[in-house]
Amino acid sequence: MIVGNEAVRLAGMGNIRVGITHQSGGLFGNPASPIVGNNLSLQIGVANQLHQRLLPKTGFQFRDQLNLDLLPSFYYARPIGQYAIHLGFVGQLENQAQMGLESTRSEYVINEQRFIAKTNLVSSYDLLWQYGWQMGVSHQLSSSNLGIRVKAITQRAKEGQILSSLHLNAQHGSDINVNDPRALIPAIIDSLDFANPAQYLERADEPLIDLTVTKYDFDFGYQHYLSVQQTDDLCVGVVVENLLQRKLVRPLFTQFGVGAGYRPKAWILVGADLFRGNRRFTFNSGIEIRTDWEKIFRGAVALRAGITKSTATALSLGGQISLGSSVWNYAFQQSVITDSVELAPTQHLFGSMIRF
């Protein structure tokens, strides 16, 4: 049996989730998924990491762009009779920033024996922090499962600019010969108070947008199991996500998806989904190959791959190692057909899970 962090497993298979059962949780895939055992799982993801030097701009020494997204989540899932519950926290931080160091401006006021220098670090930021608790319940009906997932979604958007300045202000005594650099420069340095450097630092945060919105939404899922070669080797399903389509800082559009998962052999699983939402189609397909053993100790290994096709085409790769009741998962996603860096996110997802 292949288990593991649900989000990382599905990401490694090209985000297929409609007709794929996941017996350790149902917060990311189909909420109708059946649950086996007590499952506690943790995920951390890094996406859209980018560091590049921008074109020179008048008055700046350099300008850089930094992008980094974080995707933390954890959940707990367990069955209760014919029902299964899953509860967890899902977060996503999107961070885009540009930093530029302006050229230093300095002057020396002879009448006051004062040296003044100022250097500005200009940081522009665009942050979106989406997070919230989710709870799902699924119910087994003979060869079918029904499930719902309730989501409390909070989005905090902040956009603006931070101006950080190093402002030196040094005044020396009148006994210094200002025409002698060998005496003037040491006098300026000696007049600076390095015991309290904070007095020379200035910082101003100028937000243009600072919004926090919280809404509730829910998803619906259905799965039906059929027999082609053996018991329940074909699963077909339906998922409707974001049914209320609540207005947030970044809208979450209603999506309707149909899909199937087929296990022709015990060691291989293939699946495909088709989603319609926000006036466009998304096609997901993936495969998982696995093996497990019981000799000496109980373990399992799985390899995964998938393709997602929407406005861009993305490839996914993933893997899993299980030792006893502990499971570790990794998934990598990269857009391969796109003309823009912003439309070509790279994701690295790591997940761990323990079943007890």
Topology:
Blueprint: H1 6-12, E1 39-53, E2 60-80, E3 83-102, E4 105-109, E5 114-141, E6 144-171, H2 181-190, E7 201-226, E8 234-241, E9 255-265, E10 268-277, E11 280-293, E12 299-309, E13 313-323, E14 326-337, E15 346-355
Antiparallel strand pairs: 1-2, 1-15, 2-3, 3-5, 4-5, 5-6, 6-7, 7-8, 8-9, 9-10, 10-11, 11-12, 12-13, 13-14, 14-15
Structural overview:
The protein is mainly β. It has one domain (6-355): Porin, CATH 2.40.160. It is built from 2 helices and 15 strands. It has helices at residues 6-12, 181-190, and strands at 39-53, 60-80, 83-102, 105-109, 114-141, 144-171, 201-226, 234-241, 255-265, 268-277, 280-293, 299-309, 313-323, 326-337, 346-355. A 14-stranded antiparallel beta barrel has the order 1-2-3-5-6-7-8-9-10-11-12-13-14-15. A hairpin with a 2-residue loop joins strand 2 and strand 3 (83-102). The longest helix has 10 residues, at 181-190. The two termini are 15 Å apart.
- Total strand count, please? 15
Span between termini: 15 Å
Mean pLDDT comes to: 89
- SS-derived structural category: mainly beta
Query: Strand-residue fraction?
Result: over 45%
Shape, please? Answer: elongated
Q: Total number of helical segments?
A: 2
